[in-house]
């Protein structure tokens, strides 16, 4: 059966046996669409448009209930629709848009992880062998047991990592590195000149593993229940990273073959999946990762076609749910050397770290994907057109990423919307919509009783179910903050640092209005942005970062909140907006 998929000007084609679901066929064609529930038929996000004459299975009761009137407009759910003959399917090209640009980053005075020195081969009169003479000129004590040898004509370059000779090559090329922040929802990258410290290009995208679920547990489950699940998720991640590197090089007019180091910072599960490590143990008490230390692999071992001696280094994890991304955040903010400061990473895992008495107390809160647009009816990542802020002054004003037409609601937009509802008395203390008659007139006119939701623009709306998802997320994070501060910390908090690609667009006042932050906090609050990516860059550019990372791991203490009665009891209390 011939399937033809149209997405804007792009066309994908393939032959599939009858009964193959559209979602499975998309996977075989390399097409990734949003499936927060992992294709379980629960979220209703994998919508596609089909021609009236398309040969597809008839919609079942569940699909009819989810789609309602949309069925008449030719909308189907890819996870529930089987191919019965030749057909054409149409996707919204917006599904493939990249997320918003990452923070502006600059570094100075670097001493990179991979040093390059240009030397001339001695013509004669050397005391020992030529190699030893060359190495003496580096003034480093180097292990010479294993290194790459390239062309040795004319002037050559010696490449070293701490304590090790890695290459001697006569190629007149750049010395490049890539910083990679791989998160549950997004992947952010930066290409750097390791000699100068210049950031040459930046690029990010949605994590295509979202097709297998929006949270880490969904993806771990996929590796367990599917025979080739781990292999599939590893392949998807590696292809996404490879594509991002291609874009970085094209944008900066550099060659992938000149990339000599990649530093990865990511949550524990995402890092494991990238390297092909088993992840099942992360989901089972005591939630131990397969491996927690620094990972080093040759780039080719994980499918990256870079320089012949390129290495991929992943930052270590503190625990199964406090990963290398948080270690990178601690590194980039200098948290270990600070006292009485709190780092909050707003994302799916909701990690929290506090510096106290020379130690770092860490926890994660399983906030879920709502803060990043997941499990929200019209939720999206930080894509062009995502509503990131709303305001009301006689009329509703929407601010979207890229100032384009609204396409959905991202995490910061969700917080802003809930804050607006609370400020205008539109939500009761327990989270239900209040009496419509008490709403401001213009806002009251936007309520759709059929959807039990508030219309923001066109087909973009927010429902009571979405508000419940927000309550779950904010209760988890708020409870984690309070338990950590009240039960394990006796100092006086001086500063709170809000981190995450999501965190860079947040209105701090909204964090208090919605109850994400406790009202009794009285200290400076700063928005740090993507500290994970900054930490990966710092590791690339400063050799001293490796010693600092060891120190961070050595003084970190992980607290498992799920085992505490006080967390479970307080979590219920923090669901409301009192």
TrEMBL record:
Residues 1-95 form the 2Fe-2S ferredoxin-type domain. It comes from Mesotoga infera. This is Putative metal-binding protein. GO terms for molecular function: iron-sulfur cluster binding. Pfam families: Fer2, RACo_C_ter, Raco_middle. SUPFAM superfamilies: 2Fe-2S ferredoxin-like, Actin-like ATPase domain. PROSITE patterns: 2FE2S_FER_2.
